[in-house]
Amino acid sequence: MNLNTLRQDIPAGLVVFLVALPLCLGIAQASGLPPFAGLLTGVIGGLLVTSLSPSRFAVSGPAAGLVTIVVASIQTLGSFSAFLTALILAGVLQCLFGLLRAGRFISLVPGSVIKGMLAAIGILLIMQQIPVALGATGDAELVSLVKGDFLFSLSAMIVAGIGLAILWLWTTPMVKSVKVLSWIPGPLIAVLFGCMATLFGERLFPDLPRIALPTFDSLSALAAELETPDWLAWQNPSVWMVAVTLALVASLETLLSQEALKKLRPQHPAPSPNKEMFAQGVGNLTAGFLGAMPITAVIVRSSVNVSACAQTKLSILIHGVLLLICGLWFSDLLNAIPLASLAAVLLYTGYKLATPRLFIEQFRTGTQQYIPFLATIGGILVFGMLAGIGIGIATQILCSIYKSHRNALQLTRYDDHYVLRFQQNLTFMHNPKLQGLLAEIPENSTVIVDNDNAEYMDPDIKAVLRDFGENAGERGIRLSQWPVAMK
């Protein structure tokens, strides 16, 4: 660390803090948890995980991708304290993943499944936040809009709508071309507008629901606010299922963020995915003990850190300290933030995860990619995150087997000569395809077999070839380079 890195790390840390603040509050609110839990998660990710992480630029904290898992898990387990027990177990599992060097297995997850998972998370996030943007104050769901038992709030709709307009405006070339504005995060402007609406526009925007952060006048007050785990909940099998789901999805999102970060800012040597998983495990273990939310490395905040020209981990540590200061001493100021503004930020985040362009790109890649992509989305929406990922992987395996099966054998005609090519190793599953191709060969022709790419042929395949070869003479078919010996 030197003066030059300080000059870049301090502004970068401030920018990351401004981006992370509304996201920490909004993700906690969307998860049905106190906003302070979101700030606490950002502090743990910014200070503890950063200290252990091998990456200089990866920012960890609460992730929008885990909101739906948190909500569903708390509903399944019946309490936040039981969920914290599952989070502790998930942290232990992540530490074990790191020690067992399981990070290398990230390459086995198909890209179509990963993109489907992110798109499904975006869709679920949008479905969850639409009622909030329309004025819901409780746990209203999207289905209540269809039933008609929903009370709309014009004030919330206006604030959320203007917030979305600001977020869109901040992506346009007009704003990006202004250097000063490009340094100010769009989510911060959207939240600041919401604050102005609550503080100075009470007549125009009456009864806007706001976040509710507690104030702390002593350490005992802070300790009283922290939720404690339900230590007896480990006996519940559902707790273990939630723990496995959290560990797998949080690890997957972290490692995906690392892969994306490599393209934005390569590090030499590249950060170890196993050390990163161990660091995330320690973070989630701590979050479970202190009553916080699940932690992952988040690509949005990490990319902001890189674009702000951060040089060392100091920028992330600064962002963590600023989140801690806000949570402890500026809660009154943060309580002016309306829920509709946070809903706008999360709606926009969900849109970026499930952008129509992603669907178009997947359809253009062909059936082998978009069928598993859609299967993953459908599986997650209907059955949940872990089951949906499993359905996506299974669908991708079936599609790959089918595609491989279709291209394993090829028959080409040259006048009265037929070349039968074996493109890969053949098993009994290729029997129908082989028999069909051999049936196309007419009498009085020459058959040449090219089997250089087939190092293994199943006995059933050899039996089909042998039967054809034994009857070839009767049909006037001449065989060349036949891969099996005749009796």
UniProtKB/TrEMBL annotation:
Q: Does the keyword Transmembrane helix apply?
A: yes
Question: What name does this protein carry?
Answer: SulP family transporter
* Pfam families linked to this entry: Sulfate_transp
Name the keywords, alphabetized: Membrane, Transmembrane, Transmembrane helix
GO BP terms in the entry: transmembrane transport
State the superkingdom: Bacteria
> Where are the bilayer-spanning segments?
12-30, 36-52, 57-74, 80-100, 112-130, 150-170, 182-200, 238-256, 277-300, 320-349, 370-394
On whether Hydrolase is a keyword of this UniProt record, the answer is no
Record SUPFAM superfamilies: SpoIIaa-like (SSF52091)
GO-annotated cellular components: membrane
Topological category with respect to the lipid bilayer: Multi-pass membrane protein
Q: Where's the SLC26A/SulP transporter domain?
A: 6-361
Checking PANTHER family in the record gives: SULFATE TRANSPORTER
